[in-house]
Amino acid sequence: MPSLARQQSAQRFELGGEPVTIGRRGGGAEIEVDGLDVALRHTTVRRGTSGVVVRDLNAGTGTFVDGRPVLHAPVRPGGFFLVGHHVFRVLPDHVLAHETLPTPPSLTLAGLTIRHHGKDEPTLHDVSTALPSGGMLAVVGPSGLGKSTLCAGLLGEAVVESGWAEVDGMPLGGEHQLNPALVSFVPQTSSLLEELTVEQTMWHAARLRLAADTSTAELSRSVHAVLQRLHLQAFQKQTVHKLSGGQRRRLSVAVELLNDPLLLLLDEPTSGLDEGFDRMLMRDLAQVARDGCAVVIVTHTMAHLEEASAVLAIAAASEAEAPATVGYAGPPGGLLTAFAADSAADVMDALRDGHTAAAGPRPPATQSPPQPGTSHDPPRRGRTHPWRHVLVVNLRREFRRMWLRRWLFTTLALAGPVVAAALATWTNDRGFVGSPAQPNTDLAMSLAVTAICLSLLSMALSLTSVVNDKEVVRRESRWGVPDSAVVLSRAISRGVPALVQAAVTTTFLWLGNDLRQDTATGLPAAVEIGLVLAGLTLCSMCLGVLVSCVSTTAEQAVGMMSALSGGAVVLCGLVLPLGESSGFGRLINWLSYFFPTRWATSALAAAVDLPNTAIVHTDLMWRHDVQHVLVPLVVLLFASTLFCTLAPIALRRVRNDVRR
Ligand SMILES: Nc1ncnc2c1ncn2[C@@H]1O[C@H](COP(=O)(O)OP(=O)(O)OP(=O)(O)O)[C@@H](O)[C@H]1O
């Protein structure tokens, strides 16, 4: 038993020589805390040379030091680390003080100046206001002045040049972000998967936002409590695409409440909806604020501002090119009076013209910014979620979505390859057999048709798998879902129909063609051809995933696929003679190596001994031996791995570019 002495109150612990585990109540950890975002065994803490050393056990939603999830980090006396909603402060003499983050919290913005990444000038300057606990802050102002920029700053997605923000003493934004899992953001765009039901959407989000070891009963209680809070219980079984605009917004809010955030940011949640809905949602959000979470709502509608407890109006700068700043900060009732205006439209005009009114409550100027967790030695970066758990959750969802679109995937997996094999068979009535004395003049065409059709069909399996979900991926990346898990879940789920494509094509080629020839590897001809086709379909499908990650829109992905399709046809090696060793031919030859069809047709040609069974140009890659079948197969598998490795990098870049 580790020596762990409780001091004075239940909140102080003196660490002994042995490491101590922090975990959810009921899991047998030495320090037990509440909350479904804490795993049963979440973090260990031990004495360090000065202060303590924390190690995340990668089972919950991360251990945070200085706003970053850490795997392993020293924390000196005076610093703190976060586990779920719990702050552990490190005191002298290896004493840990535990407190639960207060709910509802207050929010303070003090002199915030925010600029977007890649920009030299700030968009917002000197934004200050204070929101008491249990309150809701409405951020209003003319278009384009920086309301969404304020959210980006608080989320840590834009640069906070000066000033600071905090929720009850915990820093927000900038380098020393509070545990990001405690800040929820409802974006302006619909970032929900259309084919899932309300309940499935919530379950999936709960699995990602709560600890991996949360039981089904606990998850269910949590999901249903939030659905009830947002009056969505009656729509549980409804698919998202059948929901009204208002119900979608509610669902969008609901998924962000699952983890009991400390701060909820909403970017125009009522835009495009009627006034009745606006009032209803404002009331619900005010209730959410009273129940325990600071709410900041960016809104264009000023009709129901009285539901908020404070208003922050953004005004244009009086000088051109200067950043926008605070036009008014105070109670909603004082807004019209402050601008001597008769209507909301007058207030907007005044703000657009750069008028500012007397500011409301400002944080005391003498208050210093909250100090971060102070880990002086570099911590080892950790994850907010166990990677395997996230992959499994994403995979389950992908298989479910594919099942919901089973006709499309069945067609791509079965009907397409049957057509490809049939075409290959019809173009060649002698099967795959030929000899130097009696060459099979159609064999090259058969191989080309098979490889090209299969490559395009398998690329189609994954082409829209990420690009159509970019908004969802962006939202879930804020929850800590790694891009690699997103990519791998798409690749594995689409890998199944891709392998079925190869198997179906091989079976039909085997049934419809004479596959008696001597094989290069000594394996039965159908097995050898099947392996090559499996390599081709996997590689093309992974290329589709990469294209999907690189593209910002589905149109762009289709454009890229069209260009790749052209290359796949022309540079497969059976349409244009390749293999020249000088001049332009050499360049084309090199280019062809980037196309999976080039390697697949080479392996097929080597497998059926094309130079001796058909009348074709010569190509050095077609020699009928084991090496010339296996090397292309290895290249196809290597390329599949490479595409899946590059895809998360591309996805991260595209996501960040879109944010910028
Ligand atoms: N990611 C970004 N990168 C660079 N500049 C940006 C980015 N997002 C917004 N901006 C710029 O910052 C300024 C403020 O934009 P922002 O979206 O914050 O305004 P807004 O008040 O929320 O507008 P609206 O009410 O129309 O949504 C604009 O000039 C905009 O072009």
Which key features would you list for this structure?
single chain; 660 residues; alpha+beta; Tumour Suppressor Smad4; Rossmann fold; 3 domains; twelve-stranded mixed sheet; six-stranded mixed sheet; 22 strands; 17% strand; disordered N terminus; binds adenosine-5'-triphosphate; ATP-binding; transmembrane; ABC-type transporter activity; ABC transporter ATP-binding protein; ATP hydrolysis activity
Model description:
- With 660 residues, this protein is an alpha+beta fold.
- The chain folds into 3 domains: 4-100, Tumour Suppressor Smad4 (Sandwich), CATH 2.60.200; 101-178 and 262-368, Rossmann fold (3-Layer(aba) Sandwich); 387-659, no CATH class.
- Helices cover 42% and strands 17% of the residues.
- It is built from 18 helices and 22 strands.
- The strands form 3 sheets. Strands 1, 2, 3, 4, 5, 6, 7, 8, 9, 10, 11 and 22 form a 12-stranded mixed sheet that branches.
- The protein starts with a strand and ends with a helix.
- Residues 116, 119, 123, 141, 143-149, 659-660 line the site of adenosine-5'-triphosphate.
